[in-house]
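Our example copied in:
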Amino acid sequence: MFSPPLHRQRHQFVIDFVKRNKPKKVVDLGCSECSLLQKLKFHREVELLVGVDINGTTVKKKMHRLVPISTDYLQPSYDQLRIELYQGSVTQKDARLRGFDLVTSIELIEHLTLADVKSFSEVVFGYMTPVAVIVSTPNSEFNPLLPGLVGFRHSDHKFEWTRAEFRSWYSMVCLEFGYEVEFTGVGQAPSGQQEGVGFCSQIGVFRRRGVRDGCNMVLGDDAEDVFSYTLLYSINFPSLRDNNTLRKVLVSEVLYWAEKLKSGWMEERTGEWSGAYSLCQTAAGGEGSSNNFLLPFVSAGRCVSVPLDVLWSCCPKISALTGSVCNLRHLLLDEPEVKLSQDGAAVLVNYQEQDLEEEEDHNDLEDSGYAEARQDSHTAEQEENWEANV
């Protein structure tokens, strides 16, 4: 009946809320197969993403959806993300879930008994005290429009509220725990019936009163620290804010660019032009300065010296990662993969044996007069051809 499907509309509602409000700490209660968490992990406004479900087996089967992908390691950003999954009941308190910016409860509350709904309200709104809560639940007034439906929409549902019953519950929550609510939903009725039956899934968006500038101060700090949930999974995504990750990325970039510039320097010596220099030439200030810019690349024994200021100027990523040549030098000092000059001002890149052989062969040929003889031979051959064609 719905396009997109109703479950996608519910998830998109949460995603749109996250985009607008940019919560840093989000927990999805009743995360089940982790499908909503899988979508939220790509929205890096979130720094801590938590899922809770009473069925640990289901969570374990699907939690592989939340692992970092290869690009997270190859191209880490400055964004931070930690994901945690817990097995536990939403009617029980756990101190690790206090003070979140957003709590979502998508099609969960109708699976609880009415006694458990009271405990749920006390745990979520009274103990966890998040800045915002999104609760969605079936609207029973819409059920007559669902083809072939007899009874509740799911065999595990303990109830399905009308719009008036849902309003009665969230009015009580707001009054008791200091929240205000916006009533909305997803899944519109056919034309002309929306006002009569409402949305297929009704949604309450709760916001805690007295919260300013998105700063969440946990209420009731004297509450007991209870840890009733079992941690099933936790992972920190690669981030450039982590010093180890930053160093790994930086070393990779430095080694790549040092090798690239070394190759270009050697090609310049043999009269060939390297594409690596077009970028360096621009960084150095144009064509007029290109020759001077190449002078610092000098051979030191069996090494080529690539100055750090050249690396910093040529590679935007290196400059972005370090901020200054001084920081670049500091970050590379203790890296065993990078060999620095004695004064720490340049990276030393080893000649490869092939590099040495090619350069020696080139010099030997020039010294032997081969190039001149080859030119003379080529000229004589041209003259013969011209004479034959006259």
The chain has two domains: 6-213+222-237, 243-268+296-350.
